[in-house]
Amino acid sequence: MKSIVLMGFMGAGKTTLGKALAKDTKILFQDTDELIEKEQGKKISEIFAEEGEQAFREMETRLLESLQGQQKSRILSIGGGMPLKQENRELLRKLGVVVYLKASKETILERVSKNQNRPLLAGEDLEEKVSRLMEEREKIYLETAHQVMDTDGKQITQILWELKEILK
Ligand code: S3P
Asked: What are phi and psi of 50, to 5 degrees?
């Protein structure tokens, strides 16, 4: 059985879809933010506040390296900034089929505005932050992805069906 890596911007639905796919397929689900929080005994927001983004990015790389050593099928939901580092892009592509879950700015804004625990989006002018980061990252996501999946306007059942086709 293959592994699948769900990549995309904050609020793209990686964790929700990953959990639903894991339930359907009985494949192990892992979420890199959750694994880092567990390992560090702190919330992502606390890591950013106390140690900074750079330290968090290093934790992400170390986690990907440790996952490479464990040869198993998994559905891996990754933090939206994971592919920013070149070495992470390579590690991700070795871990499984990397699927870029693409959503429009409007969809992302609606989802992230309901949730205040993302340090990169905290504070004023959410729309400006989301626009800038989405623009900066689009090229990186496209470069990292094996497959791009548009999610706007699709039912969750349709997206799950498409993801299951990839796992075959
Ligand atoms: C980040 C995304 C977050 C989390 C951290 C940084 C990013 O994960 O890793 O706040 O740089 O896009 P989600 O994409 O699951 O929100």
From this structure: -90, -35
Is 119's C-beta closer than 6 angstroms to any atom of ligand 1? Answer: yes
Looking at the whole model, is its pTM more than 0.90?
Answer: yes
Structure tokens at 64: 């990907």
Cα–Cα distance, 76 to 22 (Å, whole number): 10
pLDDT in tens, 33-84: 999 999 999 999 999 999 999 999 999 999 999 999 888 899 999 999 999 9
Please answer whether residues 18 and 27 qualify as being in contact, where contact means their C-beta atoms are separated by less than 8 angstroms. Answer: no
**Which residue's CA is minimally distant from atom 15 of ligand 1?**
79
Gyration radius of the chain's alpha carbons: 15
Mutating to test ligand 1, I would choose from 9, 10, 44, 64 the residue with most ligand atoms within 8 A of its C-beta, which is 10
